[in-house]
Amino acid sequence: MTDSIALPCDGCGQTASGEHIARRLRRLEWTTRYRPVHINTLLLGAFSPQEERDFLYAPGGEFHGEAALLSEALGISTAGKAADAVHAEFQRAGFFLTHVLECPLGKDAGQGAEAAALLTKRLEPVATRIRRSLKPKRVVLISRALGPILEKLLALELGCPVVLDNGKLFEFDGEVPENTVARLREALAGPARD
Question: CB of 125 within 8 A of CB of 100?
């Protein structure tokens, strides 16, 4: 008889089952394969999407949800292209997507205060990773779920500017994400500062 011990996941801080860890490692492998050596723009969301088809780095070849919206906003066409061709184009352009919680929000986790508490708990490790490992030229916040912790996020020393949508978040998970696509494209038209 074996006893399983539930431990917190290193990517999100949630209690992790074996299935959770396997999913995290699979997504980490997909993501790492397309991480640029020099990151021009780090796109930072709140939670990794639940569905793999919405996860930008999934190898499936179909881009939906967050993955489709980001590709459109960044001017990367997905039509008729294999997933790895799209991922390589994203990589060559110097874009990298990550999330404060690198795993989907657990089904038993609440959306409001509980989600904000999980995000807050992950801020320091994420800031350290951005400063020491990722070292982007700029960070773009792309999720309205980061709203409750925006001030805390902006107070962190990330080592680069944070790009906002006229002082607000780019809400790719908002009511009308199509409007966000155009505004992000406009905001990224200027060069990243060193």
Answer: no
Residue type, position 156, single letter: L
Closest by Cα among 122, 105, 100 to 23: 105
As a whole number of angstroms, the distance between CA 115 and CA 113 comes to 5
Contact 137, 145 (CB under 8 A): no
Query: Tokens representing 129?
Result: 């990773």
- Per-residue pLDDT tens digits for 75-121: 898 888 898 999 999 999 999 999 998 888 766 555 677 788 889 99
Beta bridge partners of 16: 7
Let me know: does 40 contact 136? Beta carbons within 8 Å.
Answer: yes
* pTM for the model: 0.88
